[in-house]
Design a protein that fits this description.
The complex is a heterodimer of chains A (about 190) and B (about 170).
Chain A: H1 6-12, H2 23-61, H3 65-88, H4 101-117, H5 119-124, H6 127-142, H7 148-188
Helix pairs in contact in A: 2-3, 3-6, 4-7, 6-7
Chain B: H1 5-29, H2 33-50, H3 60-80, H4 104-119, H5 123-133, H6 138-145, H7 149-171
Helix pairs in contact in B: 1-2, 1-3, 2-3, 3-6, 5-7
Classes of the chains: A mainly alpha (about 190), B mainly alpha (about 170).
Chain lengths: ~190, ~170
Amino acid sequence: MTDQDPLRDLWATDQGDKFTMSIAELSARSDRFRSKIKRRNLTEYLAAVLVIGIFGWLAYSIPVLSVRIGAGLIILAAIYISWQLNKVASVDTGEAPVDNLANMHRRELVRQRDALRSVWRWYLLPFVPGIVVFTLGTTIEAGASVPLWAVIVTSIVSLGFSGAIFFGVWAMNAYAARKLDEQIKELDSVTVEG
Amino acid sequence: MKPSQTANTLYYEAADQFAHAMQRLARATEANAERRLDLLQDMHFQLWKSLSAFDGRCSLKTWVYRVIHNVAASHVDRERRRPFEGVDASELEQVPSLLDLSGLIERDDALTKLHTWIRKLNSTDRQIMTLYLEDLSAAEMSEVTGFKPGAIATRISRLKSKLAQDFKEASR
């Protein structure tokens, strides 16, 4: 593979002025990098803050115990999920990329696949108690003056709608995880350690 | 943690020795000049940061190529999520034959077209092609990428055929 190739000759002619950086410039970039990570983490928490704000306001403004408990459970789920998002799905660990390319790529694929596969456990399941209690609470409260069968039907429809959304999110993530698994197997077939 | 004095010295050594390779990889990865400079600075930054952990178990050359190719791959992943700004697809159509590189203009033009062609490859093919062009041996490429030498040789052969065919079609 060391035979002379005109393509390599062409490639080697690409020289230009040599670019290097001073240690001071590198240190400044290091500081900027740390600030960027802090900003990114803050953005990830904003979604949780939004959910907490909305359900906190609902719990405050609707004086019904079941609604308040439901809203409280949803708030707890949002806090738990934002913590998990930060822990499980964070892309940049700040570690220098020193391993070989296949291992680095494989690790990233495995990390993404595992996060997608377990999405039901750390992203969907925590919301279930809150949504069930909140939905039943609001439905029962709103249907105080209608027949019981109407309350039951409305509850089933509302919970069924939430269930369908949850199922859709789970199915899409499971599909994406299967695709990543195929990529991992393909990668393993051509790597030294595979 | 800030890199040590030894890491600083190693960085200067590596930067001096591989500056052009880093610039070539940046050019073959990013078309936009501003983002290319950012990528290049990131390569230098990650290399500098990584050298604190350099223990000599592989050569400095392998280490440098691992770091800069990983940085380039992450850059491509990030850029893929950015809204598409458009690459001039007609560039390849104007390419002169690679076999006719008699003049400087033709050579620069061919280099630009080669960079454009490489940027269109998937991540693995782009890494293998640029390592091949940097004149790394099969064993060195295997050490940098983690791919079996046989798999690398097959890919290079396929990529060179594809390159020849694409450029032939473009020059018609």
